[in-house]
Amino acid sequence: MQTDRLAEARLAAAAARALDESSGVPPERHPLVRVLLAAGLARMLGSESVGSRAASDVLIELIERASEQQTSPSGAVETRPSGLIVPR
Fold it and tell me: What's the pLDDT tens digit per position in 41-62?
């Protein structure tokens, strides 16, 4: 708002409100967080690939799978000291 970008300020405030714990939206499901994560991974990994897929796409898919398993009742996950998430 201080830089006279009212529309952008409203979007930022709405995104911040959605990240509030009382909103019920976990951060890994928030659209803005996902876009920022994807952009950061794409920039960090550049042209790296896993098989024929972009490494950033593979990492995002793994994050999505892990968050789906954590939210499902039968989706118990085990994490290893290395940080690797192993489905049970």
Answer: 888 888 888 889 888 888 888 8
pTM of this structure:
0.45
Tokens of 17: 């409100």
Distance CA 88, CA 76 (A): 6
| Domain definitions of the chain by residue range | 6-78
Query: Cα separation of 61 and 41, whole Å?
Result: 12
Query: In whole angstroms, how far apart are CA 71 and each of 9, 20, 41, 52, 75?
Result: 32, 18, 24, 30, 7
In the predicted model, residues of the chain with pLDDT beneath 50 are: none
Task: Write out the E strands in 4-87.
Answer: 49-50, 53-54, 77-79, 85-87
Yes or no: say if 88 and 76 are a contact pair by the CB < 8 Å rule: yes
